[in-house]
Structure formats: C-alpha cells, structure tokens
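Tokens in:
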C-alpha cells in the first residue's frame, strides 16, 4: 500500500507538470539595451543640401542604432522613449567650452520587437517596425535666443554647419527622465579651407627659367589644414610651350606622375604635406624640361564628395651640362637664395665666375653626389654647416 501511494503521487505530479503552462518572467525594462549599428565618422562637411529643413528629414545616412530587450517584454508591449542631446564646441560661434544646445525625444508606443532606428527615419510622421505607434519627435533648443539666431544666420549664409566638435548623447528608458541604456558619439567637423603650394616652382615660367632645379627627384611641399579624413593626390606633367596653351592644358596631357595614365592623381599618404618624387610609379624628370604640378584634396560631405585643387606651379630641371648660368643656379639649393645673391649677384664677390668643380668633405663629387646632398638637405636628413670657395 505504501509503495502504491508513492507511485500515485509521482504520477499526479508528473501529469501536472506536463499540462501546466510555463509562465514567462515579468518584463524588466532595465534589461533593454541600445547598441550602435553605424555612425558615419568619415564626413568632414555638413551641408544644408543634405537636409530638408521644412520636413526635418535627411537623405544622408549618418547613424543607426538598435533598441533591444528580453523576448518576454515584447509580449507586454511596453512604451519606450529615445532621448538625444547634442553638445557643441565651436569658437567661431562663441562656444568656447562644450555646451548643450539642443535635445529631443522620440516615443515608441507598444514595442513588440527589436527596433532599428536611423537618422533618416526621424521625421514628423514616422513608421517604425515592431511598434504600434510613434509619437512625433520633439526638439527643444537649449541655448539663448541670440546664440540660436547667430547659429541660424551662419548656417543660412554659408549653407553648412559651422566647424567645431559635436557630441551626440543617446539614451532609452520608460520616460524621458529615466535612462536604462545610453551611448555617446563625438564628431569633429573641421572642413579645410586652404591648400597652398610651397615648393618647388613658381606661378610663372620666367621665374622657373631663372631658378631651375638641380635635382631630378625634387621634394614637393605644400601647406594645408589638418584633416584626418581627407585624401590627397599629386599630378606632375611636362609643360611644352609649343604644344600647351596653358599650365592647365599641360596638366590634362600625359602625366609623369603618376606614370599609370588610368590614374589622375598619385595617392599621397594621409597626414603629410611633403613628398619626394618617387623612383617607381613615375617617369623620370629630364634635364632642360619644364614641369607643372598640382595637389588635389577630396573629402566626404553630406552633399557628396567635395574636391579642392591647389594652384599650379611650374619648375625646370637643370644639370651641370647646361649653360654657365645654370651651372651656378643649383647652388641656391645648397646655400640659399640670399647667400647666392651676395656671392654671385650684381656687385657680388664672385660675379662673373664659373664653376670648375665641387668637393664634398674634401673629395671630388659628381652631379649625382651633389643631387643626393640636396635631397638630404631638403628632407632634413643633412645640414650644411660650412663651405669654402677656392
């Protein structure tokens, strides 16, 4: 009897376990998460042409986030609020320290599954999957009227967002005052404004004729804004006065750099403003010929890729085998224009003298030796300490 009683109790218990429904855990809103899918860090310039101010929409893909929670919560269909704040640091607008200047909220009613939200989704009338309804976004400026007017005037005048650092704070919770998950993104908007060539060469052919280079591997230098997201390239072409009507005409002809004619500009490593003429991927620069060069810069904006071009410089390659005047001109690269003029210019101690030879460290040197010395000096690898004239 005792054994039978125990077996019956076990059988009843097993039956109850098989037929009783499994009750889901209660939904804990704090288990929801906010994860980044994408945030566009490659855009340098933000232009109004990428936005529709009247509708508050944008066709430029800037960010996308995923709001996700336990599966048990989706049965209860809770309400969630996405809150975002933007801080600005922009001295050009008078923001000398980071300052919160706008905040906004988007309310999702009846969340029944994971939500993917992109900036292109945020507009007056939103439809987002896995929600019953989305309340229209609310945007509230947090700066003074004078600052807001100054910013508005700048944007409307220039057509773009002012340079500066912008910090985006995102959070989600059951209401706008409660946060259960958050993310912060920082964007530096510093659109470059200048791109100036330094050397070698000049803007006119007469100066290039008077001051040729004694170096078939010149070092190109230029001056530009710091821009980590910018791409740079260089193009060098021969200039022939009989066949080219302008410097631009020459640049549109066959290039010496790059030698691959399917490439418009030879790519330059990011973050540098110095390039020695390469020994590969380029045609040799020949003595007695003129060459023109230009730097190109491109970067991403909300209106597409923007391209900037420098002025065009022209230079001439010379050698020891050229005229007497040219034989001396290369010394400018060694001792500098001022010292050269003092020695060989009108009234100079060596006016009218010609070059018979050069010694480096007491030894006779060839044209190739002197060329290498000039390259080392231009690159900062060597320094001319002293020289003598016999």
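Residues out:
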């Amino acid at each position: 009897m005792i054994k039978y009683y125990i077996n019956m109790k076990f059988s009843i218990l097993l039956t109850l376990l098989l037929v009783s429904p499994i009750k889901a855990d209660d939904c804990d809103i704090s288990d929801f998460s906010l994860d980044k899918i994408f945030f566009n860090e490659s855009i340098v310039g933000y232009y109004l042409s990428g936005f529709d101010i009247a509708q508050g929409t944008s066709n430029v893909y800037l960010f996308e986030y995923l709001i996700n929670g336990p599966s048990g919560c989706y049965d209860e269909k809770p309400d969630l609020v996405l809150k975002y704040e933007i801080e600005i640091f922009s001295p050009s607008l008078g923001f000398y320290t980071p300052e919160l200047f706008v905040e906004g909220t988007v309310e999702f009613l009846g969340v029944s599954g994971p939500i993917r939200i992109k900036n292109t989704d945020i507009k007056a009338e939103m439809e987002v999957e896995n929600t019953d309804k989305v309340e229209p976004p609310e945007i509230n400026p947090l700066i003074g009227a004078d600052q807001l007017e100054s910013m508005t005037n700048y944007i409307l005048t220039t057509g773009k967002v002012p340079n500066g650092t912008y910090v985006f704070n995102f959070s989600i919770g059951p209401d706008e005052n409660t946060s259960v998950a958050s993310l912060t993104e920082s964007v530096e908007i510093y659109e470059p404004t200048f791109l100036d060539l330094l050397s070698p060469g000049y803007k006119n052919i007469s100066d290039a004729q008077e001051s040729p280079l004694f170096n078939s591997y010149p070092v190109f230098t230029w001056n530009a804004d710091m821009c980590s997201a910018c791409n740079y390239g260089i193009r060098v072409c021969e200039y022939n006065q009989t066949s080219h009507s302008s410097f631009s005409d020459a640049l549109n002809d066959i290039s010496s750099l790059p030698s691959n004619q399917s490439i418009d500009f030879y790519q330059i490593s990011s973050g540098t403003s110095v390039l020695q003429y390469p020994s590969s991927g380029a045609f040799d620069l020949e003595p007695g010929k003129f060459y023109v060069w230009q730097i190109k810069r491109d970067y991403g904006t909300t209106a597409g890729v923007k391209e900037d071009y420098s002025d065009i410089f022209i230079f001439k390659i010379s050698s020891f085998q050229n005229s007497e005047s040219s034989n001396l001109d290369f010394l400018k690269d060694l001792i500098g224009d001022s010292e050269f003029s003092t020695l060989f210019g009108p009234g100079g101690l060596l006016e009218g003298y010609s070059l018979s030879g050069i010694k480096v460290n007491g030894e006779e040197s060839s044209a190739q030796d002197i060329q290498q010395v000039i390259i080392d000096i231009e690159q900062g690898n060597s320094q001319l300490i002293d020289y003598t004239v016999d």
